Amino acid sequence: MHTRWRWVLVGLGGAVAAAGPIAMADGPWYAYFFGGLWFLMGGTVAWRSFRMGTKLTAEGIASNSLDRQVTIQWCDIQAIEPHRRRNLVFFHTIAPIVRSRHGKETLTELSLLSIKKDVVPERTGRQVAELQNALRHHRANCAACGAQQKVLTTGHGILGRLWSRLRSRHRANS
To answer: Are 41 and 49 in contact (CB under 8 A)?
Structure first.
């Protein structure tokens, strides 16, 4: 999943990176210094923008934004929902948020600006639904999350589990 602004940011970063060597051409020493900084900063923005996005992997959700790279394990996720916060004067930023045992992570690379305060944009709703479906699929197939009943080693099936519970209650009452 990618943001619509990904290619705009790649183009702007590339333009700033290209302006760096142009500024260095036949200039004084400080032109080389600032031209090198422009090249470095523009190249970094272009590269990070190119890699920006959210990927669903077997381990979890890999989130790459301009300022950070985070992988959230599937088993740590408690809920995925749209999150809104005020941004600037009239706009609201709406992005999927992942609530986990360790706090919350906002997937800022998927954020959208919206004027409407009480409405989740259709695109953000689709992204949240896709993330929730992936989480539901993981929980259906993962015994480590506790979502699926663990197989007992006794080999007696339902009767073995019942017998085990009765024994543990008997020990607790004794």
So the answer is: no
